[in-house]
Amino acid sequence: MAALVTSEHHAAHTAPDGPPGRLGTRFLGGWGRLLRRQRAALVVGNLLWLGPIAAGCALGDRLDFGVRPRTVPAGGDLWWSIVGTNAGVALLAFAGVLTFGLATIAFSLVSGLLTGLGIAQATAVAGWGDLARHVLPHAWLELPAIGIAVGAGVVPLIAAARWLAGRGGARPSLRDVLGDAFGLLGTSLFLLLIAATIETWVST
What are the phi and psi torsion angles at 77 (to 5°)? Predict the structure, then answer.
């Protein structure tokens, strides 16, 4: 009887995690918990990113950056170019995590403002019709995805602020904070891959 119990106990600890469907469910569950834990970072990140974009759009007709429409053929080269550009922006925003989020804030304000100015001038040159055809199909996903990367960069700052305000319970561990930050970065990059696919073969 003892041998049977021991065998069953060993099997419980050495059994595989389960079929792929169960693993997928566990992954999605963990991802959902990450997003719930970092709600504040997601909101702050998108405010820091989308707010300056809105300001740039409002001021765009006052400056001239030489924005002109041009035809770009869809294909793998364009996809890689878009991925490289957007991933670079996301990684630069996230790199501010090394400065406790302060560099992320500065980068987001400046980059967001310039992005808004570019959007406004492109709209003035091409018109709202072309904007709706060539920008909106991917922008609804691309812009918030970069906002998530900004949120990832300020995760340590928000965690410290919550703890100092007495709302975070026990002192957060650096490992947990950075784990959540990298999790949000991964989410951002995954969404940017989807946005680049839409931009390449739908928006262009």
Answer: -60, -45
pLDDT at residue 72, rounded to an integer? 79
**Distance between CA 96 and CA 178 in Å, rounded?**
12
Dihedrals phi, psi of 27, to nearest 5 degrees: -65, -45
Query: CA 59, CA 115: separation in Å to the nearest integer?
Result: 11
Question: Which residue type, as a one-letter code, is found at position 40?
Answer: A
Q: Residue 5: is it exposed, middle or buried by C-beta count within 10 angstroms (0-12/13-18/19+)?
A: exposed
Mean pLDDT score of the chain: 87
Reported confidence tier of residue 166, pLDDT bands at 50, 70, 90:
confident
Q: 189 Cβ partners below 8 Å, 6+ apart? A: 87, 90, 149
Distance from C-alpha of 4 to C-alpha of 6, rounded to nearest angstrom: 5
Residue with tokens 């319970």: 169
As a whole number of Å, the end-to-end CA separation of the chain is 69
pTM of the model: 0.84
